[in-house]
Amino acid sequence: MRKQELRGKAKKVQGQVTETAGRITGDRALERKGARQRTEGAVQEGVGKARRKIGDLAKGIAKGIQR
Question: Most buried of 9, 26, 35, 48 (most Cβ within 10 A)?
Fold first, then answer.
């Protein structure tokens, strides 16, 4: 797992906590901020996964060419 994936996961968790805190306190702005953070984290994690898979694919192709 790469740094970008980990950062995305962390941002998702932070967003969930913020969103829940907003829900508990009745602060709609805080709730929206948490939802936005959670979404940004999910996107960042997805980009990280895609980059990792492309890198793995490129390594596999390079190994195949070297043979």
Answer: 48
Give the predicted TM-score (pTM) of the model.
0.80
Render pLDDT for 4-37 as a digit per residue (tens, 0 to 9): 999 999 999 999 999 999 999 999 999 999 999 9
Question: CA–CA separation, 34 vs 48, rounded Å?
Answer: 21
Q: What values do phi and psi take at 42, rounded to 5?
A: -65, -40
CB contact at 8 A, 42 and 60: no
Task: Show the domain range for 12.
Answer: 3-66
**CB of 22 within 8 A of CB of 32?**
yes
The encoded tokens of residue 37 equal 């953070």
